[in-house]
Structure formats: structure tokens, C-alpha cells
Amino acid sequence: MSAETLAARPSPLSRRGRLLLGLLLAAAAAWATLGLAPSDALPGEAGRGILRLFLEGALSPALTYEGSDVPADAPPLLARVAGALWRTVVFAVAGLSLSLVIGVVLGFLGARSWWEDDERECAVRARARAPVRRVLAAVHLSVRVTIALMRSVHELLWAVLLLAALGLTSFSAVIAIAIPYGGTLAKVFSEMLDECPRDTVRSLRAIGARGVSVFAWGLLPRAMGDMSAYAFYRFECAVRSSAILGFFGYPTIGYYLRLSAENVHYREVWTYLYALLALVGLLELWSSRLRRRVVMR
Amino acid sequence: MSERLRRLHRARPRSRFVRASAAVGGLCTAYVWCSGAVEAGDFLSARRRENLVRFLTEDSVPFPLRGEGFDLAGAWSWAGEVLGGRGLQAAVATVAIATVAIALAGVLSGCLAPLAAATVATERPVEPAAGGGRPAWRALRLIVRAGMIVMRSIPEYVLAFLLLAVLGPNHAWPAVLALALHNGAILGRLGAEAVENLEPGPLRSLRGLGASRRSILAAGVFPLALGNYLLYFFYRFETCVREATVLGMLGVVSLGFYIQDARAKLYYDEMLLLIGLGSVIVLAADWVSSRARRYLRSGV
Questions:
Q1: What residues does each domain of chain A span?
Q2: Which CATH homologous superfamily contains domain A77-294?
Q3: What's chain A's Rg over C-alpha atoms?
Q4: Which of A9, A169, A240 sits opposite B155 (nearest CB)?
Q5: What interface predicted TM-score (ipTM) does this complex get?
């Protein structure tokens, strides 16, 4: 970088400074809007009692039911925890596998490199005539809009919608995860495809490859590592989402956690929390080992 | 030629672990879909279809448009009333919750990140041999990292639910604190990585000049790591807005509160309208955060 370009640019510190100042002002305004009182952030008399109970529960998570009003046919607590954990994973696996299909299809169709035909890209639009190109551009735009809309509604809100439309069925939980996750995967996949190095693409084009084959052999293998690492990371998120779907009546871990908390059985709450933490921790370990092997640096 | 290709193919990098992971993933997926654990067929049953048709053709249609009295002006004023009244108020509250939460998360992660970074939290910071350190330093890093793992593994929704029982429902703190703790832990981890990946040269020269740990942090680590950190920060802001919307369903007054309210009253038309409003807010936050990131990178 030469001296002129350095002088022509404003210093990066001032840019950050402006952003931070804006952020501070926004936070102050938001604080005032919400009317937050710092004293309310600490528990009151009753809250302290609950907090004490809750923290005591952390040291001695329940291994059997805490209450005495357990129905005779209820499974042992640990079996119930294992079942809830298993169903949490089942919903997450089903939701993520569906969203992977959506993510790959929409991610390809949403990637600029799938459509455009300037020098660096592999073109599907390249050989089409002008009116066809306009139609294809419209398809590209509508795919991107669809991705944004799928992503912009939280999985819990999709669940609420699907509960109203379909009622309580495990398939509605799966779709509630699959739609927003499909959108997120599609967005990230298309960005990864557009941003991955173009060297292979260039050499393939130089030896005469065109169109989809450049995409499939030049671009996809370069982005594949990042894409699979990200997909696995999303699985971890899907497990968390699946867990909280239980708050809406699905039989995942959130359902039992909520029941126990509402009955003030905090030792049982901790059993569920520890189970969820162990599962997520295990997945995180797995995901980081996988990332080290598949992500190209 | 083909012999050479075959040899290259055989010599490609492979990993047993990756293959085993893919196999486990594939088997689990096949099992989940084939075993009947997910009732995909039930989706097509007559009762569900009926429910779906009723939802689409009656429940979700704005009520002034239902049946005989097709009243477009009425629908318009109904939408204006819902969106302009509680909709607007809840939208402002949602964004405000997310903003306060992300600011607190920023402060929290600023405290945690240096404590978790192996290059700083050690008795001889930023020196070439840094990284190990006495057991006390190692224990400190381990505790901070473990705490962050726990905080980011518990979903915000569960955190807010538990905080609601402790703090009471009459203010926004349960939602704000849940988001701040969860995101503070995530940003703390990312910040610690940003600190560890810093170019060691400038920091070592500060150390060579005799700077203390605190001055190295203030004059070297924070300014240098801030750029990368802020990129993550604005990315998390978007997620915060998304989550702030739904935390309302627990009883804090954000958009989710009114969505839950409409749902409980079976006003599905109003519920859809509010969900649409939530979608607009999230898209707006997405736009703001991507603009902020672009501004950081290139100044536009």
C-alpha cells in the first residue's frame, strides 16, 4: 500500500470509534426505553429463596423423583431423562437432515457463482439468450428473498405457526426446525461458494470446461470442507432448538425441564440441565475435532 | 495417464474420523426417518389435512375479510391498529432488549476474553514461552473457559425461563440478562481466539519497553483485537434480535408476548400479522449488522 492511499483513507480507529459511540448511544436510549432499574437485576426477598434452592440443586441433581405424587406407571427419572434426550436428538437429526436438503438446493440456486458469467464465475446463465437471462435473474432474486424470509422467523415462531396449522405432531416440530435452519444453511452455503478461492475454477476453464461441470468440480470441492464443518455446527444448534421446542408441548427435554421447574423441583431441573450440557459438550468436542480435519486453511 | 490419476486418487488426504462421523450421521438420519420416530405419515391424515385447510382458509384470514362481509377498508384499519398500537410498542421493546443485551454482552466478553486467552492470562504475558504458566494461571483459564462453555450451552430460552422465576416478571431484566450471559460467553470465546491469534510482534515490543499486563491490554491487545471482534459482535446482534422476539413468549413484554397472547385467544390472524412484523424487525437488524460490518471493513 502506498503512502497516498494510506493518507486518503480515514484511519480505521475513527471508524470503529464512531461505531462504538453510536452503539453506546443506542444502548443508553434502549435502556431508557425499557426503564430498567439496576436494583431489579438482583433478586428480591422471594427471588433469593428460589435462587438458593436452585443453586443447591446444582450440587445434588436428582437421581429419583423429588415429589411424592409420582404416578405409579412413570418410568424411573433417569430413564425419563434418557428418553427425553434421545427424542431431542431425534428431532434435531430429522430437522437438520431436511434442512440440509433445503440448504444445498437453495444454497446453490442462491449463489452468485451458480448464475453469473463474468470472468471469474462458472456460468449457468452464460449461454442463455437475453429474455431467458432476465427470467433466470428473477429466479435468482426470488430464491434469495425466500432464503431471507425462511431465516427471519425464529424456529419457535415456526413451531407456534405449525402447531396452529397442524396440531401437535412430531413432524411439525421437525419442519419448524427445518425451515429456518434450511434458510440459514442456504445463506451460509451460498456465501461460502461465492467466497472460496477461484484457482481451480480458472484452471478448469482454461482447459475448456464450462457451466455446471466447473461448478461441480472446481468450486464445490473447495467449499465442501467449510460447508460440512458449518453443517455440523448447526447440528449442535439444532439440538438446543429441539430441546426448547419442548416448552411448547413436544416431548423433548424442555418439556420435562419446564414441568420440574414449575413444580419447584430444582434438583430434577439440574438433572435435565446436566444431561443437556453433557450432550452439547460432547457435540462441541466432536465438532471441533471434525473442523480441524475438514477445514482447509 | 489413468494410472497416474488412480495413484493420485489413492494418495488423497483421508481421515477415518471424518468418514466415521459421516457414517454415524447417515445411519442416524436413516434410522430417524425409517423407524417411525418422526410421524411423517401422520402429516397426511384426514384430521391434519382438515386442520390445515381450516387454518389457511379461515383462521389465518384477517377477520374483517372472512365470510360475507368482505371489508377491505376494515382489514386495513384492523392491521393498522394492531401494528401501530401494541405492535409498534412491542417492536421497540424487542429491539431495545437486544441492544442493551448485546452491549452488556460486549462488556462481559471484554472482561472474560483476556482471562481465557493463553497468551495473556499467564505470568509472563505475550512472551515467546507464554502459554503454559503456573498451575494457578492454568486453573484460571480453565475455569473461565468452562464457565463460558456452560453459559453458551444452555439455550437463552431456558436461561430466561429460570431467571424469570428468580427476578420476577414485571421488567425486561430476565430477557436482557439471559441474552447478555449467553452472548457474552460466545463473544468471550471468539474474543479469546482473536486475542490468541494476534500478531505477537507489537505486543512483545510493548512488553520489552517494560509495560505491565494492564498497559499491554489497554495499548496493545484491545485495540488490535477490536477489529475482528466487532465483526463477530455485529453478527451476534442480529441473533440477539431474533431471540429477543421469542423470549417474550415467556412473559417479558417483547413481540413474543403479544404473539403468545393472540395465540392463546385463538386470534390466528393477529398472530400471523405479529409474526410478520417480527420477521421485518429481524430483516432490518440483519441489514444494520451487515452494513456495520461492511463499514468496518471498507468504510462505506
A1: 77-294
A2: MetI-like (1.10.3720.10)
A3: 25
A4: A240
A5: 0.88
